[in-house]
Amino acid sequence: MKRLVIVGRGAAGKSTLARRLGEITGLPVTEIDKLFWQAGLIATPREEWAAVQAKLVARERWILEGDLGPYDAVEVRLRAADTIIFLDFSLARCVWRALRRSRERADFWRWLLAYRYQGRPVLREAMAKHAPNAVVHVFRGPTAVERFVAEVAARGPAQR
User: Which of 15, 17, 85, 104 lies 20 to 30 A from 141 at CA?
Assistant: First the structure.
């Protein structure tokens, strides 16, 4: 696990998981939201975003976390990943977490609500097409994530 992509519905805990795994593995973590959104929450144009990601994935070791839904060019990250973590948490869990963490824009809520039927199928198809050799972990709840984190922590540095 040297090139890790973490994706999933908004407020699933991608950033938190990335930071924890970064601490355990020593892999540098990049939150793609911080690179993608320009001042005033303006989306980076697709071609420019793909070029930014190409530079990120050219590095030898990394964790790239985030899911930009319809704005994304996720295939760039998926092609370079050796490991993918898909946080496939329930709508109720993610709504609760989103309400607790901050105020969100209307487009976030539309994306969150439509994720299972719009974003999720596109993402699963992209993983199958662009990352056929990557190890894919699909977690449906925090307990499974905690087990995975404990397993990674228990491995020796050479096995991570």
Answer: 104
